[in-house]
């Protein structure tokens, strides 16, 4: 008798197992509770070029390097609590032209985030009202920058978008 009951129950158990495996107990559902996938930013190399004015306004610092500042460059706090980083030195390539290549620049064009903020520290301009800070005469990714923040002040900077080919774009 017992064997007979087991033979009758076996197909029912198999049917129950098939129903369960078909998704009745599938707790994973797509919808708003799923987090949006994290997409790492695309990074490119970008050429930086700056044309220094011919007249030096700082008699004791005219031979110093030009420094490029950018919002994407990492900054760190040293053990003394001072910020360091966030800049790179450019190299003189002839006359008053300075160049460099910024590596690992996050692509943000077409505009999907805020524009990058860039500037130059030029020792030729140290004793001017800008204190050496400049954004005019600066090219990022072959684009001459034209949209500025606080021109003529110690906070002078320019805005730029960078595409996936490493070319710069002025904001619209």
Q: Outline the low-pLDDT stretches.
A: none
The coarse silhouette is elongated
Given helix and strand content, the structural type is: mainly beta
Q: What is the total tally of β strands?
A: 14
The biggest sheet amounts to:
7 strands, antiparallel
Question: What is the arithmetic mean of pLDDT?
Answer: 84
- List the secondary-structure elements in sequence, H or E: HEEEEEEEEEEEEEE
In the residues, how many domains can be counted?
Answer: 1
How much of the polypeptide forms β-strand, as a percent range? 25-35%
Helical segment count: 1
Would you kindly provide a written description of the structure presented here, covering whatever features stand out?
- It is elongated, with a radius of gyration of 30 Å.
- The chain has one helix spanning 2-24; strands at residues 43-51, 67-70, 75-77, 83-85, 87-89, 91-94, 97-106, 116-121, 133-134, 138-140, 143-144, 148-149, 157-162, 168-169.
- Strands 2, 5, 8, 9, 12, 13 and 14 form a 7-stranded antiparallel β-sheet that branches. Strands 6-7-1-10-11 form a 5-stranded antiparallel β-sheet, with no helix packed on it.
- It has 172 residues and is mostly beta strands.
- The longest helix has 23 residues, at 2-24.
- The protein starts with a helix and ends with a strand.
- The protein has one domain (44-169).
